[in-house]
What we know:
The protein is an alpha/beta fold. Helices cover 29% and strands 28% of the residues. The chain is built from four helices and five strands; from the N terminus they run βαβαβαβαβ. A five-stranded parallel beta sheet has the order 4-3-2-1-5. The radius of gyration is 12 Å and the shape is globular. The mean pLDDT is 88.
Amino acid sequence: MKTCLHIVSTSMQRxxxxxxxxxxxxxxxxxxxxxDGVLALSDPDRCLAPFNGxxxxxxxxxxxxxxxxxxxxxxxxxxxxDGFVSLTTQFTKTVSWF
Length: 98
């Protein structure tokens, strides 16, 4: 089973939560961007470059609500609410970053 799902809900402009999650994520971990965390899609070169091969998921309804899309980012996987729930069951623990 996978180790930890890091759930990031704040933008990089308001918090360093994404940077902290990326720096602490282990190889078996994944990162899920929700709420304002999806705003990292607005500047992929700066915001998404640090992921360095980590598995990153984006909650599609939150991205769409903010005018963002994960479609052009090959390193990201868009999930719906059912996918969000499924991710939480695949990992032994979750950490929410605010």
